[in-house]
Amino acid sequence: MPGKRGASAAVAVDALRQRIIDGTYAPGDRMPSATLISEEFGIDRGTAARVLAQLREAGYIITKPSSGSYVRSFERIVRSFPHRLTVWREGEAIQDADTGKRARMVEVTVGEVPASESIASSLGVAPGDPVLRRSRRFAVEQRPVQLADSFYLIDMVRATPIVYTDTGPGGVYARLAEIGRAPVRFTERLHARMPYPAERTALELPGGTPVIAIVRTAFDAEDRCVEVTEMIIDASAYELEYHAEV
């Protein structure tokens, strides 16, 4: 590969990160040494070592003493339905059922939005009526893996912690239970497709990686819809497991 004389450390980091994302360097592959990086990008060896350090701090690689740096492998997340939707009774978050003690980060935004036709139909309001939306972006071991938007009737949740970013132990379902609206039945519909540009950016997906779009609807004991959640998950990061009794 031709050298990029005089390239900055940032250029080297971006180039190597992209090779990891697009699969040029696959999980478990050994990364180029600091010497090879310095030669390719025209930077000194100390700067090349800092490039590797930045990739390591960002979670893309690991370094083994006396061996070198390697692309970090990622264990698929097993998403078990419907077991994952019962852990709130023990005060756990639904995501705990998926990832256990693996390092997880979540970005949360909450606010009112006009209901789309599909959301309005499920929640029993008119299209355009205000509903509460909780938007999340989940990352596991510093890898973005899921986007999720959940929608609720404003009058139902207005006086609950559901309107805040931190809903407390057990999450939203525990708070719904406290107002007599505990979910007891769920449906999920899913299909695979290629990501939209904004989804590809948010999930940092390499080209050609599909996503799985999931719509979950939750109902209480009166068979009233209490939540609609639209999820986009990185198909390469998940394994879906479904259980049913017949």
Automatic annotation (TrEMBL):
Assigned keywords, A-Z: DNA-binding, Transcription, Transcription regulation
UniProt xrefs under PROSITE patterns: HTH_GNTR
GO biological process: negative regulation of DNA-templated transcription
GO MF: DNA binding; DNA-binding transcription factor activity
Domain HTH gntR-type: 6-74
CDD domains (alphabetical): WHTH_GntR
Annotated SMART domains: HTH_GNTR, UTRA
Protein name: GntR family transcriptional regulator
